[in-house]
Amino acid sequence: MDSAPVSWEALDALIVDFAKSENLLEDSFSSSPPSSPSSSSCSSYSSSTSLSSSSYHSRLTISKIRRSLEAGDIDAAMDLLRSHAPSILDDRRLLFRLQKQKFIEQLRKGTSEGRDSAMACLRTALAPCALDAYPEAYEEFKHVLLAFIYDKDDKTSPVANEWSERRRYDIAGLMSSVLRAHLNTYDPVFSMTLRYLITIHKGYCFRQGIVSPVSDLTQRLLLDERDPPAIARESLYEAPPFDEVDVQALAHAVELTRQGAVDSLRFSKGDLFLAFQNELCRMRLDVSMLDELVCEYCVYRGIVDSGLASTSASEMQAILEPKVNQLEPRCSSSRNCSLEVDSGANKHSDGETSINNTHMDGSPENNADVSSMQGMDVELRYACEPSSNHEDCSTSGLHQSENPRALQRYRTHGTGERSKRKRWRGRHDDKCGMSFDECNGLELSTTTLVSSSYTLKEQQGLGKHFILDVNSREDKYEIVLGLKELARKGMAAEVVEEVNAMDPNFFMQNPMLLFKLKQVEFLKLVSSGDYSSALRVACAHLGPLAASDATLLKPLKETLLALLRPNEDALGKGLPLHALSTSLQVAIGSRLGIEEPQLMKIMKATLYSHNEWFKLQMCKDRFESHLRIDSLKEVNTPLHPSVAMSNLNADTSTLGSSQVTISSSAKNSEDGNSPTQASSRDVICDENSILKVMEFLALPRADAIHLLAQYNGNAEMVIQQIFA
Length: 724
Description:
This protein is mainly alpha-helical. It contains 31 helices and eight strands. It has helices spanning about 10-20, 40-70, 75-85, 90-110, 110-130, 135-145, 160-165, 165-185, 190-210, 215-220, 245-255, 260-265, 270-280, 285-300, 315-325, 415-420, 435-440, 475-490, 490-500, 505-510, 510-530, 530-550, 555-560, 570-575, 575-590, 600-615, 630, 640-645, 685-695, 700-710, 715-724; strands at about 25, 220-225, 285, 335-345, 380-385, 420-425, 675, 685. A two-stranded antiparallel ribbon has the order 1-6. Strand 7 (about 675) and strand 8 (about 685) form a beta hairpin. Helix 29 runs parallel beside helix 31. The longest helix has about 30 residues, at about 40-70. The radius of gyration is 32 Å and the shape is globular. The two termini are about 40 Å apart. Residues about 30-45, about 310-405, about 430-470 and about 635-680 have low confidence and may be disordered.
């Protein structure tokens, strides 16, 4: 199965929203909101925080009620209901179910006290409630009395179902469904999006008879069972008929029967999207596994700190001392060598710390071996003054294998950004989740995080020219994130320099990335008015790269057009730096043995299935914007600057562009019909005919269209032939 491109930035936003909504993150240094320049922005922040906090605490309350019911503690659950949603207990149907389960749980204790409590519950609560709960309630009441006679371990008794602990989970799920709607508290958007995409992915793979490349993940992530549906109040039983377009859309989106879709719409009072949310939240996710996948993604993207501890000055001195001793023999009497460590000094204006390694006369010089000092605000200055015979002690040539360590400075490029990262908090208020320490130290069974003992020299093709030896997994993450941040800021020349120092063969194997980076450098020089330097970059790099790859000639020509429009923001319009930085992160990460997060693999596979599924349905997904699926598909690429130079926002995620767009509702068309090209025979089927076949024959949309194509779009003829 192929995969679809995914917008990392859109997924970042969904993931951060999910993690914050579930209270999984905490600020690295302070949990207080950032100071705002105006009272209006402060008010907006406070309002947003208040809403998020309120929703989180409501979900936490629902979770507590659920756990109490699953444990058989009905009294604790009812106490919570009285405190947070007292009107729920006014519904006699729900109250009867709770009292019936309480009666069973008292008998389950098997003690005389439990039997007495069950009898009291029977007389004071269950029997009165059975009289007016619902028509079948009194019969159920008489039936449950058999629990006095039949033992709970008798699997053949008439009340074996009542004794089953499965009943606990059924009523817990039912109450969760009711409470979500009552408190207007739903799961975060990403959680619902994931449920929906995996559901479509499974259906598509089953229909096409193909094996999912992520089945090992999706099978464990999305559980088979669902919570029971919430029950509509009796006053809604006589609701007017719903639009058949809405009924069919809901039924096929979340795999319901037609009657199930009607009941769901009745409960939501005809609100299609509210019914859709209710049904998605009924689907059960393995929350612990989801948290693991989200944590892995956040570490990969630099949203969450990888867990590196800060190092004190005394610890730094202990690290540096043996390194100084190693350097002393290299300096002869004719050279004046010095090593200076300046903690927190020489910070750039953007919050980054640099490591400068130069001769006193300006020539580059060898770096000290300080690979264990990652993540510190350290400036290492190693000066080597040449002797009178002008002997050059520099060994900083990129292809010289004698230099075992190089460019330590890029490890601190992300220091400023790292301070903005969050710390993984975990679900401390819920039993299903991970703490920060568990996530930080966990080798996920579903991931391929690199072992700390893995060395880059073992990778095929690196050989002696890979002059940076990185053993720690945390080191690798910091390297990748540091380079990603440089690319995001448009510091293309610095990125190329440091990648070459790290791995001279990298751009030989990734010429397209080099071309993109040199485009950025060219456009920055044009924007600054330095046309001669821009042309030197074009002649030295862009031209030779285009000469070796004919597909780059057109982008090169369009890039050069920036010279004719010097006043335009060529860089801002021409190349989305976030996309370039992400491409660099993926490529460098792969080079270092860091695979893409498993969550991204799931998203690529499921978005591809989503595109292909709605090609088969020959319609647009009515719910994709509601779940932000459309934004996940909006992938901008810096590969073709001609598009950007023309100020066009091209979407490279066009796997679904060939699908025929159909009006999602017949009422959106003046004549009530929405023509659809159903097959290669160019048979036109109107929307009403498609819906009629779907309704009468209980068929998926694609099958209904296929049958109509065989009978020239005549729905009556299709139905007659089927029932003939």
